[in-house]
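Handout for the seminar on molecular recognition.
Each group receives one record of this type.
Step one: identify the two inputs.
Step two: read the structure output and locate the region that could contact fructose -6-phosphate.
Step three: write two sentences on what you found, then compare them with the reference statements printed after the record.
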Amino acid sequence: MEIIIQATPEAAADVAARIVARQLREKPACVLGLATGITPLLLYQKLIALHLDWSGVTTFNLDEYIGLPRGHPQSYHTFMWENLFKHVNIVAENVHIPDGNAQNIPESCATYEARIHSAGGIDLQVLGIGTDGHIGFNEPTSSLASRTRIKTLTPRTRQDNARYFGSEEDVPHHVVTMGIGTIMEAKQNLLLATGQHKAHAIAEAVEGPVTSMNPASILQLHPRVKVTLDEAAASGLQRAEYYRWVYDHKPDWQAL
Ligand code: F6R
């Protein structure tokens, strides 16, 4: 894992944007995995401002609520179109978001996995992290080998996400999410976290044991992971000084 600590959320998003932009420039027909939530908003704003060419890019989102109409203001479909896709030249047919309204959820999850596979796999997966360590909506105790499927949100995640819905009762209980096994097959993972409320989950994920009690900790077993943090999200890390030194002394050929 490469831990990149930046002074502010803005600077952390800037590093993340450079990583994604490099992926798009190096492989214009790349496959990106994308996340929603408050964390990647700055990243998406920066990517839009870079005026990159998205015409060959294929995307797969991590998750979607079950039962929200596509056009619902809080659906992840709406989120992605409003905050990224409508501002770039992506081809609509190349956008994939799990279908939270499918008649047959297991079948549509299997189709989603097959589409990722036939697109050649995900080159770069953007991840956020829940305060309980979830990635995608793989809540603690999720199978570390799981594939795209239905999951039930924990009370804590529903509480965390109530800020977007206005009240906790309005947050759906069920979601479709890529599995941890799916995420682990991405060629590269980029986890972005900002804010003090993420410090505990990040410390456990980066420096704790690999455990399904903090699903993000599985990333310790992935060969290519960058974790981009602001100071607040990094504040629980015991080896922060070491990570800072490593980043500040990267050989030129490794620099972003
Ligand atoms: C969203 C997702 C989730 C979020 C996580 C953090 O697509 O996969 O894992 O990344 O819940 O959400 P925010 O950024 O809103 O704190």
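Reference statements: The chain has a mean pLDDT of 97. The longest helix spans residues 9-26.
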